[in-house]
Specification:
The protein folds into 2 domains: 144 residues, no CATH class; 71 residues, no CATH class. The protein is globular, with a radius of gyration of 20 Å. The C terminus is likely disordered. The two termini are 29 Å apart. Strand 8 and strand 9 form a beta hairpin. The chain contains 8 helices and 13 strands. The protein is α+β, with helices and mostly antiparallel strands. Helices cover 32% and strands 21% of the residues.
Length: 239
């Protein structure tokens, strides 16, 4: 499979082998955070090269989806129990069953596709450097969300669920040309901090939140596509 990634680069993707699958499930069982990255490095080349730390975060998500589709097909399933309370009722709907998700719709959402051409993922908001003028007039720039920045953020945030200052430092934010530190970020006004946060989180590209609709009451909920029951297996364990 060939796909034009959110950054605009061209990727070639191959299917997972038995060796790849065995290693992936072993490493996921150990909660190894690099397991998916190693799988992508084994199964994809970007512009003819093995991925490195400059890989855009949105390209990584698109590659994970493309590898899954090439290996197991376009359809994934989720064991779903509806907790929504229908209008006029005081009890949850309670419907239970398997819901199918078309992953190709997720990978190519809203993006025109050409016949006989590579697939095309939605473009990233910032394939290159981010630049924004904050409410105070301060010019803020940062690197795009790369694999290098993702790893740096994981180290900096420690045990915190989310740390926006660590995110800014990991993305090498500069304020009027000066490399930002936690101290200089804390010195910004709350309006500037909010504006900067919005831009740092404006990724574009593939939306990892998949919408699932209850066939009984039509209520919707979302789930991360990588958390779907059989995302990396034809049949999920215990099914």
């Amino acid at each position: 499979m060939q796909i034009i990634l959110p950054s605009g680069k061209l990727a070639d993707v191959r299917a997972i082998t038995g060796h790849d699958e065995t290693a992936l499930h072993r490493d996921l069982a150990k909660q190894d955070q690099e397991a998916i990255i190693r799988l992508v490095a084994a199964c994809a080349k970007v512009d003819g090269k093995v991925i490195d730390e400059s890989l855009h975060a949105m390209d990584l998500l698109a590659l994970v989806l493309a590898i899954r589709i090439e290996s197991y097909g376009e359809t994934a399933h989720e064991r779903f129990k509806c907790a929504a309370v229908p209008p006029g009722s005081v009890q949850p709907c309670g419907w239970q069953g398997d819901v199918a998700v078309n992953l190709m719709d997720v990978l190519c959402a809203g993006t025109p596709q050409g016949t006989g051409e590579p697939l095309r993922a939605p473009p990233a908001s910032y394939p290159g450097q981010v630049e924004v003028t904050l409410p105070s007039g301060t010019i803020a720039t940062s690197e795009p969300p790369t694999l290098r920045a993702m790893r740096s953020y994981e180290r900096l945030r420690g045990k915190a669920a989310i740390d926006y200052d660590a995110l800014a430092v990991s993305r090498k934010v500069r304020l009027n040309g000066e490399l930002a530190t936690r101290e200089s970020l804390l010195a910004l006004s709350v309006r500037d901090r909010q504006a900067l946060r919005i831009e740092l989180l404006r990724f574009g590209g593939v939306d990892r939140a998949v919408e699932i609709q209850c066939p009984e009451c039509r209520a919707t909920t979302t789930v991360d596509f990588q958390a779907l029951d059989d995302f990396f297996a034809l049949t999920a364990p215990g099914r």
